[in-house]
Amino acid sequence: MPTWLEALVWGLISGGALVVGAAVAWFVRVPRLVVAGVMAFGAGVLISALAFELVDEAEKGGGLAATVAGLLGGAAAYVAANIVLARRGARHRKRSGDQQPTEGEQAGSGTAIAVGALLDGVPESTVLGLSLTTGGVGVPVLVAIVLSNLPEGLSSTAGMKRSGRSAGFVFGVWTAIAVASGIAGMLGYALLVDARPGTVAVITAVAAGAILAMVADTMIPEAFEQTGLYNGALCVLGFVVSFAVSRY
Questions:
Q1: Where are the alpha helices (H) located in the chain, listed in sequence order?
Q2: Cα–Cα distances in Å, from 209 out to 81, 149, 221, 225?
Q3: Which of 34, 67, 88, 200 could disulfide-link to 205, CB 3.0 to 4.6 Å?
Q4: What pTM, to 2 d.p., does this model score?
């Protein structure tokens, strides 16, 4: 299999976890506490993968200054885009409760939620494609993304359903995000396969900064709202599992 096609497949797999989570939430009544618990676990998994895989590798390839600049730049870009989307109705796009506005309450919120979901998912798949430029796919990163995307799809779809979004809208959004994730993975490899290690390192750091900002802004608040004092323990458990996978 050509490597660019492999990157596409891994991106589709990571994005497909969102569709699986959406299907479970749409057809099965999953307790919000369970969804939040898995979300907390997934947040810990992602944080571990960021620290021990993405950021560490970026620093080795591009140096400390470039890595720090990339992290700050990625976080700043994500936060700026998220502020714009929040004002248009996408602030609570990962919430499973009644926080998401209906289209009647805020016109254009459906589009904002869809764009927000795209903003959350693309950086993750891009780093999968980037990992193929230096060898095989980063298994700990892949596991982290899948384990975080599943509860994201669960939680966000539960909120969409409560706000009256149609099945066509919900599955259309997540299918489009899955396809976009595949394309992002493919482009992450195809455009940077011949790039200098320093360039790959900086772009990896930018993506890592965006992902970390997303975890802090959307995943952890939703998890804490339901799990309360158990949130920290679940997050640390996810961190430990991911760290063990990375060292196995």
A1: 3-27, 32-49, 56-62, 64-85, 109-131, 139-162, 167-190, 197-214, 220-227, 231-247
A2: 13, 17, 18, 24
A3: 67
A4: 0.84
How far from 105 is each of 95, 115, 193, CA to CA, in Å?
A: 17, 18, 46
Matching residue, tokens 């994730």: 181
Q: Are 96 and 36 in contact (CB under 8 A)?
A: yes
Low-confidence ranges of the chain (pLDDT < 70): 90, 92, 94-98, 100-110, 135-137, 248
Q: pLDDT of 105-164, one tens digit each? A: 666 666 777 777 777 778 888 888 888 877 666 777 888 888 888 888 887 888 888 878
CB 114, CB 174: distance < 8 Å: no
Whether 131 contacts 137, CB under 8 Å: yes
Q: How far apart are CA 206 and CA 196, in angstroms?
A: 16
- Collapse the DSSP code of 231 into the 3-class scheme (helix H, G, I; strand E, B; otherwise coil) and give the result: helix
Q: Specify the residue for token string 């066509």.
A: 168
Q: How far apart, in whole angstroms, are the C-alpha atoms of residue 14 and residue 180? A: 11
Residue type, 239: F
Those residues whose C-beta lies under 8 Å from the C-beta of residue 11, and which sit 6 or more positions away, are 125, 128, 129, 181, 182, 183, 184, 185, 186, 188
Q: What are residue 108's phi and psi, to 5 degrees?
A: 90, 0
13, 135, 144, 176, 188 from 6: Cα distances, Å: 11, 12, 18, 19, 12
Structure token pair of residue 50: 């960021």
pLDDT on residue 110 = 64
